[in-house]
Design a protein that fits this description.
SSR_resolvase; Hect, E3 ligase catalytic domain fold; about 450 residues; Rossmann fold; three-stranded mixed β-sheet; five-stranded mixed β-sheet; coiled coil
């Protein structure tokens, strides 16, 4: 019997990311097709993709649209595990050949009945497995232990032991976020240095954000989407850092920030006429090149001389013996300690409510009301801690033996953070040509008397 066939392969979970599982399926299907004299027209693969999660399977959808003469799969459950998907296959009116489970003739009622029975049992098996896994996960959660699943970045496969090299990268990225660096810039830095995710893939802003926000890294146990208490494994990030990260990365205004700023003082300076923000732009007219200007074009000035002047001004001031006084206003140590104590107490009371409910001391209504009040207070405290967290870039410069040298060594986005912490800068209109750079700048030191 001659003709063509399409091959479909799928693996639900590819822990190593090497696609060896689906490659073995495809090899077996090719051999099966050759033995039957069929020419393989297409090979379609959904790797690391569940057939029961409800998510779209790209290769499966392509298979349905490709009008195959027949299909070859390693096992029927690689193709379908849910009845709605089977019905879509039945509508094609083609036969399905499974290397390990025989032939399903979907052209007649008997064959379709067999296919529906096989799929029903596959669905049952999946549901039973899910119930067993959920019960096991509940037991693990009660003891603060991790699930046996894909390795998390920063931890070994046992989920309990910290992998020091990756933990250091998480701390570095966390410091970057607190210093005002964008997730995009931090992801690029990781990729350029050859640092990969736990699955061996390149970093994206979404994966880095998820890693930094993971309660696991703060030594907290999450179960069914809720943090339920301390974990049995050690924390990579201290509580203050984790809380500050959450405040920053969940701030809705971050989604409106736009692309990374290329200019040192973009967003730091304001227009001396309209008080609007001053941004950097490349202006071709008049050969101006890189410039600063307000959005209403009240002021326009070449960027390089201003950058050089402001960096020099800050560097000279930081070289003075009393430079540390500039950062005194940013010291919220006592206030942070009080907030952290209150936050710890609120979380303890929340745990106590759950224990009281479990013991029958309070009813569900009291549990819900008390939990709502405490969660609201915890959210407020977390935001306050995040707002007072010391910017690592400012701390690094303030504590350096040579503050001016430390400033020069920082990436531009962190230099911007330091300048913004120290100075208020207005770009002023100048009515004459040939004026010095400083004449067009109105600069005040923040916190100065």
């Amino acid at each position: 019997m001659s003709g063509t066939t399409d091959i479909y392969a799928r693996l639900s979970l590819d822990r190593a990311g090497d696609e060896l599982g689906v490659q073995r399926q495809v090899a077996a299907c090719r051999k099966f097709a050759a033995e039957h004299g069929w020419t393989v027209r297409k090979v379609l693969v959904d790797n690391d993709t569940s057939a029961t999660s409800g998510k779209v399977r790209p290769a499966f959808e392509e298979l349905l649209k490709s009008d195959p003469e027949r299909m070859v799969v390693w096992h029927v459950d690689r193709l379908v595990r849910l009845t709605p998907d089977l019905e879509r296959i039945i509508k094609l009116g083609v036969n399905v050949h499974a290397v390990t489970a025989g032939h399903l003739d979907l052209s007649n009622p008997a064959g379709r009945a067999v296919a529906r029975t096989v799929t029903a049992w596959a669905t049952y098996e999946g549901e039973q497995k899910a119930l067993r896994q959920r019960a096991k996960n509940d037991q693990l959660a009660e003891t603060g232990k991790p699930y046996k699943c894909q390795r998390a970045f920063g931890f070994e496969r046992d989920g309990m032991t910290i992998r020091d090299t990756e933990a250091a990268e998480l701390r570095k990225a966390a410091d970057g976020v607190l210093a005002g660096r964008s997730l995009n810039a931090l992801s690029k830095d990781l990729n350029q240095r050859g640092i990969r995710t736990a699955t061996g893939k390149t970093w994206r802003t979404t994966t880095l954000k998820a890693a930094l926000l993971s309660p696991r890294n703060a030594g907290l146990r999450r179960h069914r989407g809720q943090v339920i208490g301390p974990a049995a494994w050690p924390a990579i990030l201290d509580e203050t850092t984790a809380t500050a990260l959450r405040a920053i990365l969940t701030d809705p205004s971050r989604s409106k920030r736009g692309p990374d700023r290329r200019y040192l003082l973009s967003g730091v300076m304001t227009c001396g006429k309209c008080s609007g923000p001053v941004v950097g732009a490349f202006v071709k007219d008049g050969n101006k090149g890189e410039t600063y200007r307000c959005q209403k074009i009240h002021v326009t000035r070449k960027a390089a001389p201003i950058d050089e002047y402001v960096l020099g001004l800050v560097a000279r001031r930081l070289a003075e013996p009393d430079a540390a006084d500039l950062f005194a206003a940013a010291d919220h140590g006592d206030e942070l300690a009080e907030l952290r104590d209150e936050l710890t107490g609120a979380r303890s009371r929340l745990d106590g409510l759950a224990e009281a409910f479990a013991a029958g001391d309070i009813d569900r209504q009291a549990l819900a009301a008390g939990s709502r009040r405490l969660r609201d207070r915890i959210a407020t405290l977390e935001a306050m801690v995040g707002a007072l967290a010391v910017n690592p870039a400012v701390s690094e410069v303030a504590s350096a033996e040579d503050a001016a040298e430390a400033l020069a060594a920082l990436p531009q986005d962190q230099q911007r953070q330091v300048i913004d912490a120290l100075l208020t800068i207005k770009l002023m209109p100048i009515g004459r040509r040939g004026a010095d750079v400083w004449e067009g700048l109105d600069i005040e030191w923040k916190g100065s008397k």
